Amino acid sequence: MKKHSLSVILITKNEADRVESCLRSVAEIADEIIVLDSGSTDDTVAICQKYTSNITVTDWPGFGKQKQRALDKATCDWVLSIDADEALDDEMKQAILDLLSQESIEATSYRLPWGVTLYGTTLKYGRSARAVLRLFLREGSRYTLDEVHETVIPAEGSTGKLAGLLLHYTHRDYGHGLDKAAQYAWLGSQKYARKGKKSKGLALALLRGLWTFFHIYFIRRGFLDGSVGFIVAMTYAQVNFNKYVGLWLIEQKRS
Known about the structure:
Belongs to the glycosyltransferase 2 family. WaaE/KdtX subfamily. The chain is α/β, with parallel strands linked by helices.
């Protein structure tokens, strides 16, 4: 029996083809599900209404600010932040239930192993072989307000790690992957410019891209994920290169 309540927060836009599997995976363990939708033109909101009435349709201020808005609406003891292209596997679902059934929970946040799934392959190496901080004590936690790659800053205390996988179906297809990579690179350029980071020229942008590929494919053993591991390493390398090229172009425009 659960001793601690759980809010699930989710931000959406045009996720009708993926959001139901996400919501289905958390419906049994959530005490409340909070959805912030930034103007979907498909059936996303209608699908979400099958699982919760706590839905707000709003503007799009960027990832960090939108997730903070969702967090501000949460009322439970603990918060699980999940994306529409993610879902808990059965082991992870049970791990969260077991945690919330404890009388006293030592840590204030937990990392969930990411099961990035692309083109029919769940990756085990490379950049995907990591655990993301998604479960945290509500009181005292907040999000950074970055345009992209926002992070949660949990309440002071230790961070644990749960068993199971947070499955992440990151791309619908290769075209969607290209669009998403371009969007994230440009948002990253703008974030770096806002924070005063310098590009240090196009040659360094190229070196950064090459290093990203080497780090993911060789040091983090992405090659063990086969052909999909190669595609992923190349994609991350391109994103990092494009991000610093975008920053360089912003600098040129300002000078």
